[in-house]
Structure formats: structure tokens, C-alpha cells
Design goal:
This protein is of the alpha+beta class. 58% of the residues lie in helices and 12% in strands. It has 10 helices and 9 strands.
Length: 486
């Protein structure tokens, strides 16, 4: 029973897909050329009659639909579908670098570290004060004066403290670079996920159109007695299932765009057409990848800077035992009387100079514990470089394995699996035309073809995301690091 139904489906399908008849338009006099409206691809609500830049995101306004006479005059008109603006990866990267708060936050961390480095090398402030001794009428008023006191830091302690702090500043700068790379990795990963969602919607939309066409033909055949009700119900059920898959793909696309909107800090960002080639996957080599990561990784640079910091910290701890010099000097007016003659006191003492010089003797505390701790931390930092390299190798091994699996799957799908599935589907259709095949076989072949196309799209997206992770120095694409933390 299936063969005549399917032959009829095949004959009627082209007719059903043709749509309505052509209607020849009536010639009319040419209308005046309408004005052009410029709009922002990121903020469609921003419109202008002249070219310029968006006041919200600084993107160049693109010419959109042409304004009617009413619109040019600023009057409302009937809503028309907006022209689609194609967005590039560079657009999202620029928006993220300009608007994501992690960039400003990491810069503030570097500025704070620079401030601490400046502070670490500053001399201690002098102390100015007043003093008095023997202030009473018995002594003639005693001695009253002022002094200035200064601590002189010895053994280059301030310079070493500043060098230690400067290494902390260098680490913060590496963390800033890591935050930027992580942000770009996330943007790129979401961009290719959105490209995959876009392609998947196209694939499932094509399948949905075929399913709806089959339902229409089945209904027409049922009306003329050429198909049973179970055949119609089966076609309607398959169309519903495919429609649900299409809705799921659309929801996945919307989720990706909401994530992208949050990442680039553009709440008004809506799904639109993307300009990118999902099938042009990069070719990577494991040895070259590890070499590039070792050369450019902020994570490894931070570990190496920590070694330098440890060395400076040890030297700083070792000179801590060398005492600083405390110097104090001043003037005072001594109103006590000097020599006392037969007639009583003869003359007040007058102005006198005073000074004190002192050092702390390192008898008990020679900073033994501080030196020991600094040496242990320096050794920890040296071992940290090796540990970081091993950790990078381990992460690269896992990421590169996933990249190879996905890239092999992409190539296999593209060159062998999908061509064979397409050939099988075409053969089943040919068999139907020759009344040598069954409807369930064609249905299974069609469903299998589209499922393989889904898997092909997923493999493309995964290949790109693993390549981005590897080319992005294996930095986490979740942008979850706290500011200033590795």
C-alpha cells in the first residue's frame, strides 16, 4: 500500500512547494527615491538619517531600510521587517574589551599593585616635636625647645622592598593579560557556538519544511482515499517531533545570545545573522601548541616572576638584621641659671643644642625565622614553575585529544558518512519511483541523514571550541577568576 502513496507524494510535492501563481504587476510611474535610515547593528533602536557612530557602543551606523516619505518626515508608518546586519567575531571582541567589567577590574588590580610598589620604597617621614625639662619656678623655668627625628633605613632595605613589590605588580600585569585572554576565549567560543546554532536551525528548518509538506500531501491523499488515517497520523506525529527539535534549536540559539549579551555587557543584543565560516577549522600541531603556550602563557610567566620575587624576598629578609640608624637633634632655651655667686645666680644658660643617635643591637632577633620562611617560599616558587609546566602539558593532552576526536569526526562526516547517507537517501527515493522500495525505509534514511547532519554541526562547534582553548593558552573560558588571581 505504501508504494502508490509514496509515488503520489513524490509527484505532488513539487506542485505543493511552488506556492501561488505569478501575478504580473501593473506598471506604474516611478516613485521618488526614498531617504535612507542608518541604524546600529547592536542597538536597533538607535537610528539616524545620516551616517555616523552609535552613541551607546561607538559602532559605525550601517545603512538599513529605505525610509518612506512618512518616515523621512518623522511620522509613524506601518511596521516593516528590519534588515539583518551581519556581525563578525571582531565586533563581539571589541564590545567585550570595551564594556566587560573584568577589564577595568583587572586594570585596577594592576594600579593597586603599582601603588604598593611605590609605597614600599618611600623613606619614613621625619618626626618633629617639642620637649621640656625641669620646667618650674625653682629652676627659673627649666629648658624648653624643639627637635626633629629621622630613621635612616640602611642596607638597601627600601630598594629591596620595592623590588619585591614590583614583582607583585608584574604578576598582577600577567593576571590582567590572562583575564583579557580568558574573556576573548569566551567570546570566541560563544561566537562559534552561535554559528553552530544558526546552522543547526537551518538544517532543522529544512527538515521541518519537508515534514509539513509530507503532512499536506498525506492529508490530500487521505481526502481522495489514497491514504489511510494511520498514514496521516504518522506523518503528523513526525512533523510535530521535528517541530519540537526546531524549537529546541531556536531556544539553544537564544540561550547562546543571552550569554553573549551578558559577556559583552550589551543587554539589548538580540539574535541576528553572523558572518563566519564554521567549516574552516584550524589545523593544530601538539608540539607547536605546547611551544606557543610555554612562550606566551601568563600563567607560566607569573610562576617565573614568583621565582624572582622569592629571590628578592630572601635578600630582603637577610638584611633585616642590619639595624637602622635613629638620629634626633634640636635646640632648646635653657632658662636655668648657670654659676651662682655670692649675690645669687648670675646668668641663665640660654640656647643649647641637643642630639641623640641610636641603633638596635641584633642580639636576640636576627630575623632568623623570616629568613627561613623566605627561603622556603623561594623554593616553593621554583618548584611552582615545574609544576605549572606539567599541569599545562596535562591540560593540553586532554584538550588536544578532544580536538583530534572532533576534527577527525568532522572530516569523516564531511567526506564519508554524510555523502553515503545522502546517497542512501537518494537511492531509496529512486527505488520509490521505480516502486521497488518501502516508505518506512525512506523515512528512516531521511531521519538518519538529518541526525547525522546534527552530529556534524556539533562536531564542528566542538572542534572550534577546543581549538580556541588551545590557541587561547589553555585559559579557562568561563571567566571565573577573581581579579588578580591566577
Amino acid at each position: 500500500m505504501y508504494k502508490p502513496i509514496l509515488l503520489t507524494l513524490l509527484m505532488l510535492a513539487p506542485l505543493l512547494s511552488q506556492g501561488q501563481e505569478h501575478v504580473h504587476p501593473v506598471p506604474s510611474s516611478p516613485a521618488p527615491k526614498p531617504a535612507v535610515i542608518y541604524s546600529c547593528p547592536m542597538h536597533p533602536e538607535v537610528k539616524s538619517k545620516t551616517a555616523g557612530k552609535c552613541p551607546k557602543c561607538s559602532m559605525v551606523l550601517e545603512p538599513g531600510k529605505e525610509l518612506s516619505d512618512l518616515e523621512a518626515a518623522g511620522l509613524p508608518t506601518l511596521a516593516q521587517p528590519a534588515d539583518t546586519a551581519h556581525l563578525h567575531l571582531e565586533d563581539f571582541e571589541r564590545m567585550a574589551l570595551e564594556a566587560n567589567p573584568i577589564i577595568g577590574q583587572s586594570k585596577a588590580t594592576v594600579d593597586a599593585a603599582a601603588g604598593r610598589a611605590l609605597q614600599a620604597g618611600l623613606w619614613p617621614n621625619p618626626t618633629i616635636g617639642a620637649n621640656g625639662e625641669h620646667v618650674s619656678r625653682v629652676t627659673g623655668g627649666g629648658a624648653i625647645g624643639g627637635f626633629i627625628e629621622q630613621r635612616f633605613v640602611t642596607a638597601g632595605k627600601l630598594g629591596l622592598s620595592r623590588k619585591v613589590a614590583q614583582q607583585d605588580q608584574a604578576v598582577a600585569a600577567q593576571h590582567q593579560s590572562a583575564q583579557k585572554q580568558m574573556l576573548l576565549n569566551s567570546v570566541r567560543s560563544l561566537f562559534y557556538q552561535a554559528l553552530g546554532d544558526q546552522l543547526l536551525i537551518q538544517v532543522r528548518s529544512d527538515l521541518a519544511k519537508l515534514a509539513i509538506r509530507a503532512v499536506g500531501v498525506s492529508r490530500e491523499l487521505a481526502n481522495v482515499g489514497q491514504a489511510d488515517r494511520p498514514d496521516l497520523l504518522a506523518a503528523e506525529t513526525e512533523a510535530e517531533r521535528i517541530d519540537l527539535e526546531l524549537i529546541g534549536a531556536q531556544n539553544a540559539r537564544d540561550r547562546t545570545w543571552r550569554q553573549m549579551a551578558a559577556l559583552v555587557n550589551q543587554p539589548g543584543l538580540k539574535p541576528s545573522a553572523l558572518d563566519g565560516d564554521l567549516t574552516d577549522i584550524p589545523k593544530l600541531d601538539a608540539d607547536q601548541a605546547i611551544e606557543a603556550i610555554y612562550r606566551d602563557s601568563p600563567e607560566l610567566r607569573s610562576a617565573e616572576i614568583a621565582v624572582q620575587r622569592g629571590d628578592y624576598a630572601v635578600r630582603r629578609a637577610q638584611v633585616e638584621m642590619i639595624p637602622d640608624l635613629f638620629v634626633r637633634g634640636g635646640l632648646r632655651n635653657n632658662r636655668e641659671y648657670g654659676e651662682i655667686g655670692p649675690q645669687g645666680p648670675t646668668q641663665r644658660r640660654g640656647l643649647e643644642g641637643i642630639f641623640d643617635v641610636g641603633v638596635q643591637i641584633p642580639i636576640f632577633d636576627r630575623n632568623q625565622g623570616g629568613v627561613k620562611a623566605a627561603k622556603a617560599e623561594a623554593e616553593h616558587a621554583r618548584l611552582g614553575v615545574q609544576r605549572t609546566k606539567l599541569a599545562i602539558k596535562a591540560r593540553l593532552a586532554a584538550a588536544f585529544k578532544d580536538y583530534l576526536d572532533s576534527s577527525v569526526a568532522v572530516e569523516r562526516y564531511r567526506t564519508r558518512i554524510l555523502p553515503k547517507a545522502r546517497q542512501a537517501y537518494d537511492l531509496y527515493l529512486s527505488n520509490f519511483r521505480q516502486m521497488a522500495g518501502a516508505y518506512p525505509q525512506a523515512l528512516i534514511a531521511q531521519r538518519n541523514l538529518f541526525q547525522l547532519q546534527d552530529s556534524y554541526v556539533a562536531a564542528l562547534v566542538n572542534t572550534w571550541q577546543r581549538a580556541i582553548e588551545i590557541q587561547g593558552l589553555l585559559l579557562n573560558t568561563g571567566v571565573t577568576m577573581g581579579a588578580g588571581e591566577p
